[in-house]
Amino acid sequence: MRSRPRRWAARLHVALVALGAAVAEVLDRAGVIDRERLDETLELAWPRIVTGFAIMSKNTVDLAIIGIALGANAVAGLAFAFAYWQLAKFLSIGLAGGTVSLVSQNYGGDRPDRAARVVKQSLLVSVLLVIPIVVGFVWFAEPLIALVGGEGDALRFGVVYLVVTAPALAFEFFNMIASRTYAGVGDTFTPMVVRAGGALLNVVLTAVFVLGAGLGVLGAGIGTAVSIAAVAVVLAWGMTGRSYFGRGASPVPVGRDGPWFDADLARDLLRVSTPLMARRVAEGVVVFPLLWVAASFGSVTVAALEVGRRVRALLGSFSWGFSIAASTLVGKRLGAGEESLATAYGRDVIRLSAVVYVLASVAVVIAAEPIARVFVDDPTAVAATTA
C-alpha cells in the first residue's frame, strides 16, 4: 500500500522535471534566456520568490482574516496603516538592495571580511533610520491615519494596528538586511525557510488572536509583530556565524570583533543605497493620494483599493527573486572582472521577468472575482474589488 504513493510521487517528479526541461528549451529557443543561465537564475530566484510571498503574506493574511471577522471598515483601517508600514518597508528594501550589491561584489572578489563589514554598516544605518520612524508612527498614529482620510471606525482600527506593529519595523529592517546578506553570498534557501516559517506563524497567531480570542485588529497586529520578531531572532543566529543543524551559517558573520564603523564602506553603501531608497520611497508615497481620494467614496472603496494593492504586492514577489538573482550573478561576474558575461546575465533575467509578469497578470485578471471573495463577502465590496 505504501509503494503506490511513492510511485505516484516518482511519476509526478518525472513529469515536473520533463515540464521544466520543456519550458527551459522553449525559453532558450525564443531568445528569452540561455538555458544554463536560467538554471543559475532560478536556483537563486525561487527561494527568494517564496520568501517574498511569505513576507508580503503577513499583511495579506491580516487583511483577509480581518475582512472575514470585521468587514470593510476594518479592512479600510488596515489599508491606512499599511500605507505607512509599506513606506518604511520600502526604505529598508532600498537599503538592503545596496547591501546585497556590495556584499556580493566583495564576497565574489574573495574579500569576505570586507563583506562582513558592509553588513555592519547596513545594520548601523538601519538603526539610525528605523528609530525615528517607529517613534513617529507610535506617537503620531492618529493624525497620520486621519491625514489619508481615516475617520470613525476606520480611523480607530488603523491607529490600533499602526501602534501595535510599528515597533516590529525595527525587526523587519534587520530581517531585510539579513535576507539580502544571505542572497549576496549565494544562499537564498536559508532566509526562505526562516521567512516561510514566520509567515506560517503569523497565520496561526492571527487566526488564534482574531477568530479565537476575538481580539480583532489588535490581535492581527500582535500576531504580525510577534512573527516578525521571531524571524529576527532565528536569522540573528545564522548571521553571527552559527549553523542551523549543520547548515545555513553566514560566511560573512557579524561579530563583536573588529571595528563596527568603516567610513569608506559607509559612504559606498550610502552611494549605492540612496538612489534605491529614494526610488522605493517614491513608490510608497504614490499610494497616499490614492487612499485619500478613495476615502472620499467610503470604506468599501478603500477596502477594494487595498485588496488590489495586496494582490499586486504578492505578484511583486517575482521581482524579489529576479532582482536578487540579477544582483548576485551580475555582482559576482563584475567582482571577477567578467563584464560582458555580467551584461548577458542582466539582459536575460530582465527578459525572463517580463515573460513571468505577463503570464501572472493574465491569471489574476481571469480569477479576479474569486480572489476578491477571499477578502470581502459583501456584494458591493466584491464588485468594487473585482473592478
From TrEMBL:
UniProt feature coiled coil, ranges: none
Ribosomal protein recorded as keyword: no
Listed transmembrane segments: 63-85, 123-148, 154-171, 192-211, 217-237, 285-305, 311-331, 352-372
InterPro entries to which the protein is assigned, alphabetical: MATE_fam, MATE_MdtK
UniProt keyword annotations, A-Z: Membrane, Transmembrane, Transmembrane helix, Transport
PANTHER family documented for this protein: FMN_FAD EXPORTER YEEO-RELATED, MULTIDRUG RESISTANCE PROTEIN NORM-RELATED
Stated name of the protein: MATE family efflux transporter
